[in-house]
Amino acid sequence: MLTTTTNIREILSVRQERDVVICRNRVKEVAAKLGMGIVNQTKLITAVSELARNMLIYGGGGNVLLQTVTRGREPGVQLIFEDKGPGIADIKKAMQDGFTTGKSMGMGLPGAKRLVSEFSIDSTVGKGTTVKIIKWKNG
Amino acid sequence: MERIPILKMGKFLLVTIQVDLYDRLALTLEEDLIQMVHKTGARGVLIDISALSIVDSFMGKIIGNIAAMSSILDAETVVVGMQPAVAITLIELGLPLSGVHTALNVERGMALLAARMPDETDDIDVDDNDEY
């Protein structure tokens, strides 16, 4: 099996609303570089937008680790959103469509999950929340 | 502060979003548009999003709000120019944009708005005649 080294690994900081746009644009650039199609690119950056906004609104901002990864020969984009906010008490509830504690529509987490290939969330009350997503090039 | 321009075309307002929307900018647009509908008595609002490569749940909510508020002020809202990838993503995200009219492009959007108020096509002339 062909092993490709990860050539992109960077940290994007999300501290204010404009950072969400910067984050989206950078992810789009990287996804385009991998040859990801426009529909998958759009799904990915929409998920990024939801998660980065969540991080800003509920987590008080945080960092996004952006990496390119491979599975066999297929490249993908992996993102880890990490905040040191209050955390999510009931992840099951937060993953339900329409559930929100804020001013949003409650589409952020479950919507983002539907838009990416792999999604995992880990949260500890009082410590913060980490969301990891991967979008494969053809995924 | 950055603002998205709103153009008046007859009894309609035209907004072409050419920049990436961050939340504050979207909220400002919502406010400005509703003020403009009220001030001008516009009967329709046409929002061109052809330059947008992304519409997430927050922007979707803003578009829905604009349509709902305009409707209360007796104006219809049409969103035009949505890119196919954005449409696919919106549906998967679970955001059907209900209550908002959509059309393929500005031309069809204008036609849709005009068709929805056929009895008023001559209303400028009617108003003029009323003065005599």
UniProtKB/TrEMBL annotation, chain A:
Organism: Dyadobacter fermentans (strain ATCC 700827 / DSM 18053 / CIP 107007 / KCTC 52180 / NS114)
GO molecular function, a single term: protein serine/threonine kinase activity
SUPFAM superfamilies reported for this sequence: ATPase domain of HSP90 chaperone/DNA topoisomerase II/histidine kinase
Keywords attached to this entry: Kinase, Serine/threonine-protein kinase, Transferase
Name of this protein: Putative anti-sigma regulatory factor, serine/threonine protein kinase
Keyword Transferase: yes
InterPro entries (alphabetical): HATPase_C_sf, HATPase_dom
UniProt domain Histidine kinase/HSP90-like ATPase: residue ranges: 39-139
Statement: the UniProt record of this protein carries the keyword Lipid metabolism: no
TrEMBL record, chain B:
InterPro entries registered for this protein in UniProt: Bact_StressResp_Reg, STAS_dom, STAS_dom_sf
Domain STAS span(s) in chain numbering: 2-113
Pfam families: STAS
Gene3D superfamilies, per database record: STAS domain (3.30.750.24)
Domain of life, source organism: Bacteria
Name assigned to this protein: Negative regulator of sigma-B
Species for this entry: Dyadobacter fermentans (strain ATCC 700827 / DSM 18053 / CIP 107007 / KCTC 52180 / NS114)
